[in-house]
């Protein structure tokens, strides 16, 4: 499976996402924000970072990049798309996901290993998990507070589109402890924590077994790769 990872000016985690794809058995394809060519990929990842310096609003300028025209079309046609942190912000700005992300309620940048509850294990990116499962992956953001109207929040809850929820602590003031959501179809998922930083022993979060041994993030990438194999 060929998975495109889009680099924007200011992207920081694009190479990490490419490595995660490779470890999951997929073929990472580097894509550039200024292109209109998705190069025949089967899925897309919008990585974390500070696209365009986070001017205006995080992800706002990136959402208008040339390649986003193709991303929106591909997503609407059913292609799996994952937005991580700044990529999640881009997806909301582009209208592919509802709600928005604002400054953390405590006003500070936060970096921690975060426990999440998997609320929806039926999306393209979560099929390797089980509903109710708790996973730990790194979180690092300054504007990660998820907001939406009460009506929208109720609809997201009612339709099972809250994909991840923060456990033990709400690190940024996200309403209803929401850490990630999906679109109606389930092919587009956005979340603030970084699964690409928990895919390889020795480089992930600490676990009871050993320091830096956590690989819970790998399930995101194996989910979409194995789904493609099944469909093939």
UniProtKB/TrEMBL annotation:
<keyword id="KW-0658">Purine biosynthesis</keyword>
<keyword id="KW-0963">Cytoplasm</keyword>
<protein>
    <recommendedName>
        <fullName>Phosphoribosylformylglycinamidine synthase subunit PurQ</fullName>
        <ecNumber>6.3.5.3</ecNumber>
        <ecNumber>3.5.1.2</ecNumber>
    </recommendedName>
</protein>
<feature type="active site">
    <location>
        <position position="194"/>
    </location>
</feature>
<feature type="active site">
    <location>
        <position position="196"/>
    </location>
</feature>
<keyword id="KW-0547">Nucleotide-binding</keyword>
<comment type="function">
    <text>Part of the phosphoribosylformylglycinamidine synthase complex involved in the purines biosynthetic pathway. Catalyzes the ATP-dependent conversion of formylglycinamide ribonucleotide (FGAR) and glutamine to yield formylglycinamidine ribonucleotide (FGAM) and glutamate. The FGAM synthase complex is composed of three subunits. PurQ produces an ammonia molecule by converting glutamine to glutamate. PurL transfers the ammonia molecule to FGAR to form FGAM in an ATP-dependent manner.</text>
</comment>
<keyword id="KW-0378">Hydrolase</keyword>
<dbReference type="InterPro" id="IPR029062">
    <property type="entry name" value="Class_I_gatase-like"/>
</dbReference>
<keyword id="KW-0315">Glutamine amidotransferase</keyword>
<dbReference type="InterPro" id="IPR010075">
    <property type="entry name" value="PRibForGlyAmidine_synth_PurQ"/>
</dbReference>
<comment type="subunit">
    <text>Part of the FGAM synthase complex composed of 1 PurL, 1 PurQ and 2 PurS subunits.</text>
</comment>
<keyword id="KW-0067">ATP-binding</keyword>
<dbReference type="Pfam" id="PF13507">
    <property type="entry name" value="GATase_5"/>
</dbReference>
<keyword id="KW-0436">Ligase</keyword>
<feature type="active site" description="Nucleophile">
    <location>
        <position position="85"/>
    </location>
</feature>
<comment type="pathway">
    <text>Purine metabolism; IMP biosynthesis via de novo pathway; 5-amino-1-(5-phospho-D-ribosyl)imidazole from N(2)-formyl-N(1)-(5-phospho-D-ribosyl)glycinamide: step 1/2.</text>
</comment>
């Amino acid at each position: 499976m060929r998975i495109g990872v889009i680099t924007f000016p200011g992207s920081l985690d694009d190479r990490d996402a490419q490595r995660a794809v490779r470890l999951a058995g997929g073929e990472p394809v580097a894509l550039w924000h200024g292109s209109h060519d998705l190069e025949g990929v089967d899925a897309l990842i919008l990585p974390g970072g500070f696209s365009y310096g986070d001017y205006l609003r995080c992800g706002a300028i990136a959402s208008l990049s040339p390649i986003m025209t193709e991303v929106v079309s591909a997503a609407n046609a059913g292609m799996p798309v994952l937005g991580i942190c700044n990529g999640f912000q881009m997806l909301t700005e582009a209208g592919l996901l509802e709600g928005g992300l604002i400054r953390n309620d405590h006003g500070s940048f936060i970096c921690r290993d975060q426990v999440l509850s998997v609320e929806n294990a039926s999306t393209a990116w979560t099929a390797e998990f089980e509903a109710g499962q708790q996973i730990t992956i790194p979180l690092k953001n300054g504007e990660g507070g998820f907001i939406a109207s009460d009506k929208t929040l109720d609809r997201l809850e009612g339709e099972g589109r809250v994909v991840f929820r923060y456990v033990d602590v709400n690190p940024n003031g996200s309403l209803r402890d929401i850490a990630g959501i999906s679109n109606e179809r389930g092919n587009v998922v956005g979340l603030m924590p970084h699964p690409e930083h928990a895919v390889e022993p020795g480089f992930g979060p600490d676990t009871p077994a050993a320091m830096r041994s956590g690989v819970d993030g790998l399930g995101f990438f194996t989910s979409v790769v194995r789904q493609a194999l099944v469909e093939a």
